[in-house]
Specification:
Helix content: 40-55%
Shape: globular
Number of helices: 21
Strand content: 5-15%
Number of strands: 8
Largest sheet: 8 strands, parallel, barrel
Strand order of the largest sheet: 1-2-3-4-5-6-7-8
Structural class: alpha/beta
Mean pLDDT: 92
Radius of gyration: 22 Å
Order of helices and strands: EHHEHHEHEHEHEHEHEHHHHHHHHHHHH
Length: about 475
């Protein structure tokens, strides 16, 4: 029997998040969804990550309605989301009851695979979300896969042995599949081979997924070595939205796998149709400046900076808005220093934003840590988990006070109060029509309230117009 390596298509989430800061509206891809449903993907990553925030903040969309619409058009394909553990989709830890409810609503609205990670690989922050997947998978009568995800990075404290032990811990917790999330595209072919072989030797029957980016130019080589080493699933993006800070091309890897005699389950004519559909869409965003050429380029310096694609595109967008793109190279150079001061955290949301924003602030103000973000302060207090390595004592003393230590506990232990929901419902009043509306407000209060107010105003105007017409 031919060996199988399956492909997750990322164009609806991480590919456009990495290339153009998640600015791809649902209307741009609705017409291709039914075709994508016939492709034979392992899954389509379409939700989570920054999509939720972007829908509310920039695109004027209800993220829950987007998910339901995708499910309606893709009933035969597993829909996948990325969940930041106790952070959900935001930049702080939420109470356990909020995490549980968010997972329930995600499953209720159509999600089939929830890839759960913690920015610091502190697995205490995955437990509540994992238990909720199991609970609500049963409630809704669907097999929803909980995929345990490791934020991959390199540092003096990150070794193959450490990663294998992490994988064993995730399997002990009950996760069905494992994902290595190389958000900066810094995993080398040599490292991929060693990691996959090590994991497969220790856990031969557990499916392993590799997620990487083309930022540094190594992704194709890295995925090839991972395939040879026994990886089961790879994340790819349809060709127009591949490469640069995105994932390797679905079409290219399909061709390469054929040469290996490996079945990936895809239909060639369908993925070609998907490819052709997205070509003019990509060109539209290049023409209007949303897709910056820097995001499409290869930058081997990311091997030094360890900067993931979404972080890079956000830095470019933010510095452009501040008319400070001349500081881009200096800000990049500051990132490794800030990361070292914070104990070598993997650069993945929310840590990537925290480190990136602090590096930009240090450069723009011309002085390191003249101004420290609240998020970095909370990190030093222990509110995000345990740092992988010792932090800068000098910076810790500056933030906490000399001699004080961070809290070593999971901040949201035993917090199941229901107060978040009661308060949010009261604050929204008649703006909220569903649990989903309330959850959007809990996650992103300002953006959700503005969206709900605009929705109500639009509907009232339509109602008045209809009465007048009548």
């Amino acid at each position: 029997m031919a060996r199988k390596v399956q492909i997750t298509e990322t164009v609806l989430r991480d590919a456009n998040q990495s290339l153009m800061a998640t600015r791809l509206p649902y209307a741009d891809y609705e017409d291709i969804l039914e075709t994508m449903d016939k492709a034979g993907y392992y899954s389509v990553e379409c939700w989570g990550g920054a999509t939720f925030d972007s829908c509310l903040r920039y695109l004027g969309e209800d993220p829950w309605e987007r998910l339901r619409n995708i499910k309606k058009h893709m009933p035969n394909t597993r829909l996948q989301m990325l969940l930041r553990g106790q952070n959900l989709l935001g930049y702080k830890h939420y109470h356990d009851d909020v995490v549980e409810k968010f997972v329930e609503l995600s499953i209720k609205n159509g999600i089939d695979i929830i890839r759960i990670f913690d920015a610091l690989n502190d697995f205490r922050n995955l437990q509540t979300a994992f238990e909720a997947v199991k609970k609500y998978s049963k409630k809704y009568g669907r097999h929803v896969i909980a995929s345990g995800c490791i934020s991959y990075t390199q540092s003096p404290v990150h070794t193959v042995e450490k990663y294998v032990e992490m994988c064993k811990k995730l399997v002990e917790m009950g996760f069905e599949t494992l994902c290595l999330k190389d958000m900066a595209g810094t995993m080398s072919p040599y490292e991929a081979e060693g990691l996959i072989k090590g994991i497969k030797a220790a856990l031969p029957n557990v499916p392993v997924v590799l997620h990487t980016h083309c930022t540094t130019g190594m992704a194709y080589m890295t995925i090839t070595k991972a395939i040879e080493a026994g990886v089961d699933v790879i994340d790819c993006a349809t060709s127009p939205f591949s490469n640069g800070t995105s994932q390797p091309s679905t079409d290219t890897m399909f061709y390469a796998l054929q040469q290996y005699g490996i079945d990936c389950g895809l239909k060639e004519d369908v993925i070609k149709e998907v490819n052709d559909y997205f070509k003019p869409i990509k060109q539209k965003y290049i023409d209007n400046g949303t897709l910056n050429p820097k995001s499409m380029a290869t930058d081997a310096q990311a091997l030094v900076y360890k900067v993931p694609g979404g972080m890079l595109s956000n830095m470019i967008a933010n510095l452009t808005d501040m008319k400070s793109m001349d500081k881009f190279d200096a800000a990049l150079a500051e990132i490794p220093a800030v990361r070292k001061d914070l104990g070598y955290p993997p650069l993945v949301t929310p840590l990537s934003q925290m480190v990136g924003n602090q590096a930009v602030t240090n450069v723009l103000l011309g002085e390191r840590y003249k101004q420290i973000s609240n998020e970095v302060k909370n990190y030093f207090k222990g509110e995000y988990g345990i740092a992988p390595a010792p932090v800068s004592q000098e910076l810790q003393d500056k933030i906490l006070g000399e001699g004080k230590e961070p809290v070593d506990c999971r901040i949201e232990d035993s917090k199941r109060t229901g107060e978040d929901f009661a308060m949010a419902k009261e604050e929204l009043g008649d703006l909220a029509r569903s649990e989903e509306d309330i959850m959007s407000y809990i996650c992103f209060p300002k953006q959700a309230k503005e969206f709900l107010e605009k929705r109500k105003a639009k509907e009232e105007n339509i109602a008045v117009y209809s009465i007048e017409e009548a």
